[in-house]
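Worked example 2:
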Amino acid sequence: MSPAVALPAPAVPEFLAPRIEDIRNALRAGRPEEALAAAQGISHELAESHGPLHVYALHALELVAFCAQLAEHPALATEVSVYTASAWQRVLDAKHRHVRQQARNGVASWLTVTNASDVVRTATDVLALLQSVYGEDHPSIALVERRLNAITGADQRAAADALRASGPALSIRP
């Protein structure tokens, strides 16, 4: 599939407006798990009704990642952001700002993962995405590799230090 022309983010479709408002209200009320479940429902429905690469479906995935991060599921947020960035790459140019934003979101989430097995499990996908978006020599790649090496290395202190959530999670945007 050849890269498509980038379109501005669509307004919330009328048929989704009440459900998106429900997600906003849940987040404002401090119910991120409820918001996450609602976002996942919308995402699945849009992927089925419009296709997994439709702009609505991809934006819904971004919302899922955002809600997952707020619900303190950074591994899920990482996986969804990485998947979404890869999906956007199939629709847009690999260097498009939207692809880059999702790649940044994935790394930001990954840096907040504190479970060693989740860090290791998601690191390969994060690294592959960064290489495809930024190239082999980007500083983010070295950052991910250093953290991964510290966590998987023999130095227990370095591993514990690397497992502290250190990411710029507030920079994550849907």
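The CA atoms of residues 4 and 60 lie 19 Å apart. Confidence is low (pLDDT under 50) at residues 1-9.
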